[in-house]
Amino acid sequence: MIAVLKNGVTKEQAESVILWLKNQGVDVHVSEGKYQTVLGLIGDTRRIDEELLGSLEIVETVKRVSEPYKSVNRKFHPDDTIIDIGGIKIGGGNFQIIAGPCSVESREQLCGIAQEICKTGAGLLRGGAFKPRTSPYDFQGLKVEGLDLLVEAKKLTGMPIVTEIMNANHLPYFENVDVIQVGARNMQNFELLKELGKTDKIILLKRGLANTIKEWLMSAEYIMAGGNEKIILCERGIRTYETYTRNTLDLSAIPVIKELTHLPIIVDPSHATGVARYVKPMAIAAAAAGADGLMIEVHNDPSNALCDGAQSLTPAQFADVAQAVEKVRSVI
Amino acid sequence: MIAVLKNGVTKEQAESVILWLKNQGVDVHVSEGKYQTVLGLIGDTRRIDEELLGSLEIVETVKRVSEPYKSVNRKFHPDDTIIDIGGIKIGGGNFQIIAGPCSVESREQLCGIAQEICKTGAGLLRGGAFKPRTSPYDFQGLKVEGLDLLVEAKKLTGMPIVTEIMNANHLPYFENVDVIQVGARNMQNFELLKELGKTDKIILLKRGLANTIKEWLMSAEYIMAGGNEKIILCERGIRTYETYTRNTLDLSAIPVIKELTHLPIIVDPSHATGVARYVKPMAIAAAAAGADGLMIEVHNDPSNALCDGAQSLTPAQFADVAQAVEKVRSVI
Amino acid sequence: MIAVLKNGVTKEQAESVILWLKNQGVDVHVSEGKYQTVLGLIGDTRRIDEELLGSLEIVETVKRVSEPYKSVNRKFHPDDTIIDIGGIKIGGGNFQIIAGPCSVESREQLCGIAQEICKTGAGLLRGGAFKPRTSPYDFQGLKVEGLDLLVEAKKLTGMPIVTEIMNANHLPYFENVDVIQVGARNMQNFELLKELGKTDKIILLKRGLANTIKEWLMSAEYIMAGGNEKIILCERGIRTYETYTRNTLDLSAIPVIKELTHLPIIVDPSHATGVARYVKPMAIAAAAAGADGLMIEVHNDPSNALCDGAQSLTPAQFADVAQAVEKVRSVI
Amino acid sequence: MIAVLKNGVTKEQAESVILWLKNQGVDVHVSEGKYQTVLGLIGDTRRIDEELLGSLEIVETVKRVSEPYKSVNRKFHPDDTIIDIGGIKIGGGNFQIIAGPCSVESREQLCGIAQEICKTGAGLLRGGAFKPRTSPYDFQGLKVEGLDLLVEAKKLTGMPIVTEIMNANHLPYFENVDVIQVGARNMQNFELLKELGKTDKIILLKRGLANTIKEWLMSAEYIMAGGNEKIILCERGIRTYETYTRNTLDLSAIPVIKELTHLPIIVDPSHATGVARYVKPMAIAAAAAGADGLMIEVHNDPSNALCDGAQSLTPAQFADVAQAVEKVRSVI
Fold this sequence. Notes:
By secondary structure, chain A is of the alpha/beta class. Helix content of chain A is about 30%, strand content about 20%. Chain A is built from 10 helices and 14 strands.
């Protein structure tokens, strides 16, 4: 961390701030220039409050040189992390499509969809059992019964299963779940992240509605700081002023994330756009931009889906998207 | 809810969508015009997926006429809700300032601040015991020990106490807390909201980082749907592209909220701006705009605060702000 | 346009608003339901102020059914518009890359770059002569001299030229320019748009910094309303809270634009990301999402470029990007 | 400007970047630390491209220490600028309300409104003659005829007049206009700003739809760089994702602007909220936050206004707002 002192700061003032910094456990390297004094803070600067330091009377500006995240940082872990889900791999050149209905609604629905998509390109099966809904009056999911149906569908098709957790107390029910999803609204539910850090489960961490890439990586850091290194990041659109799409899909996040961290990143074009007919172009664009996978909503009967039907593809449409993605991937 | 069908829709197509809507439990009133057919949906339209309906081939547009929230809606509860915290009232013309340090750090710190501010305008004492921090390496609060110190400070000064909860499992520790705060990052932690809805505690619900007013009211609805009607809303700035302030304080939310709901609304200028010297103008502006109260960070030694020191006022600065607020309130 | 009246509105109140609407030149079709009265406004509703109507005491809600743009609307012009620039075509399946330096700096620089890129995939040459800069102290372009150099480079290579206009008074200088660019900051400079509508020049209309797709199409409508139908739209990233990239490239705008209008859309990944190493993934993603072309900054010596060097590719890097884009296009 | 080089940079690499910087006309002061080398750039660093420097292979980070604006900077002009409009003063403790209709529609309308508001608190008269409208089909203003009517109203009431310019070619028509407004959509129309910088007219510069405070000050700098120092800034709401209000009024901009520049700042609550009933609370909040004035839309018959009727007050409502503002100002 670098702090530049204002012109005309006295020696006493400078020493006072240096002492204060040293008391916070960092070494301070002083460069006295003709025009200004620059303090280089060395050591564990993660505890230094950048805004507070910048607000001091005698400080002109502060700049954090190193990122506040460590375990997720590619600098200290140059190779891509490859997540292995019972032989199905994501990251480091391995690409997977996670597909399935927004909500698990019935055995018939889930198993029907699963059997179709496993033949046409899906590597993992998704389905919501515990559903976060904006309104308390909306369908909240089949809960434990939904998890049981997912396990059944897994047995039937061999596809590993992905489903969202909303409460760390539910963890015992997730024993047979292969990948536990943290939804956008819980990206900064730090208590949940800490609990997931103590498990050995694979975590799919969605980006929050309006969170920066840095905050997203800090949330991944929460999980890794607990000892769990099996994390897949998922870009799902951010909130902007544009209303033709539900969110604005930030595909630039893909090359940025690949530069900053070794963790794999997948993209969810269904939630990002909220419109079924925009899923195909955004899915192939995500693949072209270098994503490690996709998460796509598929429903056998979108107009009767209990949630998010507007963005669901039919199994036939899914097959078409998966094929187009495959073609694009073959040339990049 | 109103759905307008496209020009040229056949009678069969119209009947098919009407049947589908009726199967979802609503009555449909059809107005056949020369140019278009308008469907008026009557009954419990909360279950109808607006986006899905709008995405159907034959539907031109959909508009929800009534708000999806009910208990928080002023239409069904025209009088202001007044929250009574052991005789200290907020709402319906009653104004309170909640003040105190961002984090509880020690008995000395907390009690010292509490004794000063209770003489200069603070009606309630705030202090964080469980702290949500972006980084896992930042100070996470004194936790239960912090709650004990808050109770001590309450005994000493008589001020009711306000502190944040991050995990419903911690509820037993909050027995002696007067007002439980839900932080911005947990505004859509629906599992937490549901649990708080089952308690009889007063809840201070902060607006999320990038949440709409409608989503905020839906989160309040989650709590009220559980039976707990004691909610105070708190505007604390929203995320925009501007960086001179930490967030953009949305004071227009005050008159909007007062129109839509009967619940009281207070404003937190400290977190909104992130800069101590902007707290005073924003505090008096909030009071002028009709807020029912304020939440202000005060620290005896901001430059050594363990968190958010850059935005904390000293007790003397707080006294000045409280006095200025009082003056403005006396004329509106 | 549909207006829904509030419950309990009297016959007299309803008649008064209907009369007022008719005075504004529209027909009103009334559907009296058991619970509410719906007014269908027919005719030229473009003159009706949607916000004002919605703010009337007795009106519950208003919804515009038809889009406020007409000439750019695909409904009235189902086929793709193909822009023909001296034989070089954009739109309707024709794809072009526009490339060149941000600013024209010298004959050597411009002609050098032009000769390289015309061999490796660029169909048109771009270069700024009149430069919009945030600071009055930044390099403002070579102006007319820059235009002359562009014409020279065109003679040398045969590539049509694209350059930005900032002032309608400069139009006489643009006689030999093939495509006139309207920059993001001038997207709602309506006086400029009107003047361009009177010319027969091809216009490249960039999306404004924080403009909606609807506003963008209304700006295109300004040009078309003047009689000029030769417009190419260019997505160049929108302003959000994220700071790792200069703007957030909104690739979902591609399928949305293709649905709403017949005009071609190209993408500028250089300005969108502001970072040279993110240009390649975003260029191929844009092509995959269905863009009709790309606009890419190329400089022979990015570190000495007079503007926007951070986002410029070298000619060798450009050749690599163009080849990758070609490969992706071959499979979609 | 400070540039921090990466760890492990060789002496040769450092010297190469230093030479390159010196060639761009700045002095470089080198501080070689044990862990990193810090370059302090001295002199006219406004020409250095911060993003480009930061993108160089061997540079870790770059931070601009001084603001890129000079004439508008309070550092070099500590006293408040007071704008004197024929004896009516704004800034430095002087507060004014500018009021009037969105558009000038007729002599009767304008003079009627003017005569009422000049008795109840308005110091200046506003009215649009040249109107920027999103749609080419909307009313575009009475143009020169409108300017003539404004001059008439000024003669009648003595109030100085404020009206918007959209095209520098129209300047000759503005001879009798006291304050020339630059609208939000033209805030970065640099050609217009340059022309206004050459005049001796008072300029009211509105903040752009989604522009940062820094960009806003840079636009003021454009005008001042031309020699015209008579500028009033006007905050009018910024674009966010919230839709209950047309824009989000950023009142925190008031204390920020007062800190950064000596220019006066006024607030337009009418355009910011877009809703007449929110104008009063936001007007008094702006006054409380320290604004130097207000700009408020008033119409004798809002429901028949040719533009923006939804946000206009009646003269009686205006009198009430002006009185409330006066009361708040008396205590701050």
